[in-house]
Design a protein that fits this description.
mainly alpha; 48 helices; elongated; E_motif; PPR_At4g14850-like_plant
């Protein structure tokens, strides 16, 4: 055997100083040993020095030494150096070729690896295995299988036609990757024929393949048939349990593995940690963490990633952060697990900061990172940050990835940018159900209901595109918002044809749609079916919330149509059926108390809420504040109750603040409303005011005639808070300035309407406000203009005709009064009758002009006549005294 020169004969003495990287090498080592040890320990610098000294010393290396040098450069990812050494070889053996093929395959340069493979004068089984493994690692499983098939043929230039156990292991992993169990079963038969079925490597690969292809029973049977099981076999079956959601079985196998004294592998720990995150099992997860630390796997990147994912799925963000920070090497998967977990735990701001830190650290953001970044921006409506994520996705050419595009759609929709969402959707070359769901949801959430239904029609016209439960639920919400029962019926018809007619959650959406469209019988029929289906179902997967959600849909639907009495009746039926109300039920029924001014029922509900400790819910608290503010009686006492609810809240959101400001406005307490608004503007611990906040303050100012103050806050909206006034704000300001006495107020109000931005069109409400100002100031000329505009927008509005008639009557223009009354009669426009109600002994009595529906209507009219006679009598007495 030919030996190379020793280290002492060629290296300078100073090379072996105590601080030198080669101190781990022993004296009298050959070049081959140096290159091998540098390859093992990844010491590129000393290896380069050894290479340089080999050249300068004039030493002629053998093919073995050169192959060790090539392997060292390949291991260090210095392929340019490796290729130069390879090119200078006058005689290349199979090991030289295999080393280069492996190197290029490892870094994903499969084109070069394939060209080298094709150029090989002769190949051995390692050559085939290397190129197969390279294809598999680079996501080309089909090509890997093709090479496996080629191995079985006596192709030209190949010295072998057989496969070894490694060949089968790689090919079976390729079958797992493409989820082709039939091909895997054929390979299993070939293994049996060639006698590889009892080999532990091939057997473990077969267990892994059957597990990943969802044939868990076959995987388990094969595992138990193995004559010898090593840690890889156990890891494969435990991973199969997790992949097939056989979590308890996986835990049992892991315990059995420990009892047999078999050391857990990286894969086994990762699988069992995923189980602890899936259930979730936080206590067991901590125990596994301790076991991992004891076995010195804490610094392993894959195990550490699985561990922090487990903690995040258990809601333990702090421990997950600790594990993440302790990882010596963080892979892209580690970063992604942390980013996704923070979004899942609603820590969207922290997640976005981590994405930015990831980008700044030079970690290459992939599709998962960018999708999670979009989700973080969507969770907190961080529009500008979302634009930055979109820019990064475009720069990395990942904006066309369907998962990234879908997440971007969701972000733009939640941030209210329908143009951005539509731009992504229209540019997508491939769309799936999630894509359509994202844009449909974005349109529905931004109240573009017609366009929502148009995109739905576009979806069902696409071949192979089938709406799912989420699609139908969103579309039904759009139908409910538009109050279009015809379109709702068509959607219901498609639901039945798609086989989802018995789905419980779609059933709830149908109840909501029919009730809000006024089809109460249909709503009640589907509601009864939902309850019956729940009561007779034996499925454990059916949610226990189905009954209460169905009742909620029915109650809120009636309430939205101002059928508050029926809503309260339904609430009583719900309680009688034994269904416990939830937060949404209480919020809905409290709203009906506000509509009917049934303060006593509202207080009973408040007591029940306190008893069930639900007062911390912001929607319930906001509804209580609104109810106390709107109910009649002692307004000061009720507002005190509203303030008490507000003060006792642990967390106050924007809805709560707006509810109290609206209450102050309702009672004309402008100073209190302004004080609360100013607190929102100055205190960083409170949510900043929005359009609703300013609208309530403007109404409060109009209520008590604080004209200058109201105009100040109207101008302040855009100037100080960046809030562009909407139509409802202009309506309030028209009502406000219309209270100025004389011609000035009317002209000022008219000027505001005519100078509004072009994209804000006056509606009937704003013209009616102007008409009211004209009535107060007896301006018949502008009143005629306002009346015409109201009638153009709402031809059946009798109030406009009546107000115009009153103006002419005040001015004594009786001919004009007759003309207006005649037009009113010709157009058959009827004045809506007045309605009032009163609560006596916990029963609400409703009265309508000319109504005879009340059971004691005769007694009521007799009492009314008596009251009118007493009033006339009192007027006569007063006139007599004055005379």
């Amino acid at each position: 055997m030919i030996y190379s020169s020793t280290v002492h004969s060629i290296f300078p003495t100073k090379l072996f100083s105590p601080t030198n990287l080669l101190t781990f090498l022993q004296p009298k080592k050959t070049f081959s040993h140096i290159f091998q040890e540098c390859s093992i320990h990844r010491k590129l610098g000393p290896a380069k020095q050894a290479h340089a000294n080999m050249i300068t010393s004039g030493f002629t290396p053998t093919i073995f030494v050169t192959n060790c040098l090539i392997q060292m450069y390949v291991t260090s990812s210095c392929l340019d150096y490796a290729h130069k050494v390879f090119d200078h070889l006058t005689h290349k053996d199979v090991v030289s070729w295999n080393g280069m093929i492996t190197g290029y395959a490892n870094v994903g340069r499969m084109c070069v690896a394939v060209s080298l493979f094709d150029a090989m004068p002769e190949r051995d089984v390692v050559s085939f295995n290397s190129i197969m493994s390279g294809f598999l690692r680079n996501g080309k499983a089909h090509e890997s299988v093709a090479i496996f098939v080629q191995m079985g043929r006596n192709s030209q230039g190949s010295t072998v036609s057989c496969r070894d156990f490694t060949s089968f292991a790689i090919a079976l992993k390729a079958c797992s990757a493409i989820q082709d169990c039939l091909l895997g079963a054929q390979m299993h038969g070939l293994c049996f024929e060639l006698g590889f079925n009892h080999d532990v490597v091939t057997g473990s690969a077969l267990v892994d393949m059957y597990g990943k292809c969802k044939f868990f029973d076959d995987a388990l049977r094969l595992f138990h048939e193995l004559r010898y099981r090593n840690s890889v076999s156990w890891s494969a079956i435990i991973a199969g349990c997790v992949q097939n959601e056989e979590f308890k079985h996986g835990l049992k196998l892991f315990v059995d593995m420990q009892r047999l004294g078999i050391d857990a592998t990286q894969s086994a720990y990762a699988s069992i940690l995923r189980t602890c995150g899936q259930f979730p099992l936080p206590i067991l997860g901590r125990q596994i963490h301790a076991h991992v630390a004891k076995r010195n796997f804490s610094s392993d990147t894959i195990v550490g990633t699985a561990m922090l994912d487990m903690y995040l799925k258990n809601g333990n963000v702090e421990d997950a952060g600790m594990v993440f920070r302790s990882l010596p090497i963080r892979s892209v998967q580690s970063w992604n697990a942390m980013v996704v977990g923070l979004v899942r735990n609603k820590r969207c701001s922290e997640s976005m900061k981590l994405v930015q830190k990831m980008n700044n650290a030079g970690v290459s953001l992939d599709a998962v990172s960018l999708s999670a970044g979009f989700s973080a921006c969507a969770g907190r409506e961080m529009y500008l940050e979302g634009l930055q994520i979109h820019a990064i996705a475009t720069k990395k050419a990942l904006d066309s990835d369907i998962s990234v595009a879908n997440a971007g759609l969701d972000m733009y929709g939640k941030c209210g940018s329908l143009i951005g969402a539509r731009r992504i959707f229209d540019s997508m070359t491939r769309r799936d159900v999630v894509s359509f769901n994202a844009v449909i949801t974005a349109l529905e959430q931004n109240e573009e209901y017609e366009e929502t239904l148009n995109v739905f029609d576009q979806m069902i016209s696409c071949d192979g595109m089938f709406p799912d439960v989420f699609t139908f639920g969103t579309v039904l919400k759009a139908c409910a918002a538009l109050s279009t029962p015809d379109r709702g019926l068509r959607v219901h018809d498609r639901i039945i044809k798609s086989g989802l007619g018995q789905n419980s959650f779609i059933g709830i959406a149908l109840v909501d749609m029919y009730s809000k469209c006024g089809l109460r019988e249909s709503a009640r029929k589907i509601h009864d079916r939902n309850i019956s289906h729940y009561q007779t179902s034996t499925s454990s997967s059916l949610s226990t919330t189905i009954p209460v959600l169905s009742w909620n849909a029915l109650i809120s639907g009636y309430s939205s149509l101002n059928h508050s009495e029926e809503s309260q009746s339904l609430f009583s039926q719900m309680l009688a059926s034994g269904i416990l109300p939830d937060n949404f039920t209480y919020a809905s029924i409290i709203d009906t108390c506000a509509d009917l001014s049934t303060i006593s029922l509202g207080k009973q509900l408040h007591g029940q809420i306190l008893k069930q400790k639900l007062e911390g819910d912001s929607f319930i608290s906001s509804s209580l504040i609104d109810m106390y503010s709107k109910c009649g009686g002692d307004s000061r006492s009720n507002m005190d109750d509203a303030r008490t609810v507000f003060r006792t809240m642990r967390q106050r959101d924007l809805i709560t603040f707006n509810a109290l400001i609206s209450g102050y406005a309702h009672h004309g307490q402008a100073d209190s409303a302004i004080e609360l608004l100013e607190a929102m503007r100055s205190d960083h611990g409170t949510p900043p005011p929005n359009h609703t906040s300013f609208l309530s303050v403007l109404r409060a100012c109009a209520h008590i005639g604080r004209i200058e103050t109201g105009l100040h806050y109207f101008e302040s909206m855009l100037k100080d808070n960046g809030l562009r006034p909407r139509l409802e704000h202009y309506s309030c300001v028209v009502d406000l300035v219309g209270r100025i006495r004389g011609e000035l107020g009317v002209q000022h109000a008219l000027r505001i309407i005519t100078t509004m931005p072009n994209d804000i069109k006056p509606d009937a409400v704003i013209w009616r406000s102007l008409l009211s100002a004209c009535v107060c100031n007896k301006n018949s000329k502008v009143a005629e203009l306002a009346c015409r505009r109201v009638i153009e927008l709402q031809p059946d509005d009798s109030a406009a005709y009546v107000m115009l008639s009153n103006i002419y009557a005040e001015k004594g223009e009786w001919d004009e009064v007759s003309r207006v009354r005649r037009v009113l009669k010709e157009k058959k426009v009827r004045k809506e009758p007045g309605c009032s109600w009163v609560e006596v002994r916990n029963q609400v009595h409703v009265f309508v002009v000319g109504d005879k529906a009340h059971p004691r209507w005769i007694d009521l009219y007799e009492s009314l006549k008596l009251l009118v006679w007493e009033m006339k009598k009192q007027v006569y007495i007063d006139d007599s005294l004055d005379g």
